[in-house]
Write a structure and sequence with these properties.
By secondary structure, the chain is α/β, with parallel strands linked by helices. The chain starts with a strand and ends with a helix. This is Anti-sigma factor antagonist.
């Protein structure tokens, strides 16, 4: 089973979740459980995927369910640092039209904070 490391970093107004490793069927439950425990409703969330070289449909499903749940709780999910293979999956499935993607975590955090300031 591929190793998956998940870290949560709280910043003012934004929760950054760092994902390290492949996202696939072997660790789907771990990813889903971790996201389910964080963060509180209404928080802006950035998923740092810079260290995710591969994502299959299982990982994509968890990511989409989490994003939909956040939207239903007045929050948003932004992706940062998406690597080529996961980016291709996001592109061919049309996810890029629904979930904002940024080159860096800093860009995603700045966009999340700007969204919070406009709505707050």
């Amino acid at each position: 089973m591929p190793s998956l490391t998940l870290l949560c970093r709280e910043q003012p107004g934004v929760t950054v979740i760092v994902v390290c490793g492949e996202l696939d069927v072997t660790n789907r439950a771990q990813f889903e459980s971790f996201l389910g425990e964080r963060p509180e409703p209404g928080r802006q969330v950035v998923l740092d995927l810079a260290q995710v070289p591969f994502m299959d449909s299982s990982g994509l499903h968890v990511l989409l369910a989490f994003s939909t749940d956040r939207l239903g709780r007045s929050g948003t999910v932004r992706l940062a640092g998406v690597q080529p293979l996961p980016a291709r999956l996001l592109e061919i499935t049309g996810v890029l039209t629904h979930v904002p993607v940024h080159d860096t975590v800093a860009d995603a955090v700045a966009a999340a904070r700007a969204t919070t300031e406009r709505s707050g």
